[in-house]
Amino acid sequence: MFDTKKRNELVIELQNYFADELSQDLGQFDGEFLLDFIITKMGPAFYNQGLNDAKQVVERKLLDISDEIYEIEKEE
């Protein structure tokens, strides 16, 4: 899903979070397993929410376009 560079960045973010917020060390191996868990178990919910948000934006834009087209229609 993510390229190696991005995965490493995400693992580092997890390690920093564990160190700063939980005062726990998270090794590279454990960080990768945690990242895989988050991606597998929680990723779909975030992905679907992103799709729903994008859908709402597109629907609002389509309504705006429809309104603008209605405004320039000529009476017959």
Derived structural class: mainly alpha
Low-confidence stretches: none
Strand-residue proportion:
under 5%
**Radius of gyration in whole Å, from Cα?**
22 Å
Helix content: over 70%
Describe the model.
The protein is mostly helical and 76 residues long. The protein has one domain (4-72). Helices cover 84% and strands 0% of the residues. The protein is built from 2 helices and no strands. It has helices at residues 4-22, 28-72. Helix 1 crosses helix 2 (28-72). It comes from Vibrio hippocampi. InterPro entries: DUF2164.
Short description:
With 76 residues, the protein is mostly helical. It has 2 helices and no strands. The radius of gyration is 22 Å and the shape is rod-shaped.
For the structure shown, list the relevant keywords:
76 residues, mainly alpha, DUF2164 domain-containing protein, DUF2164
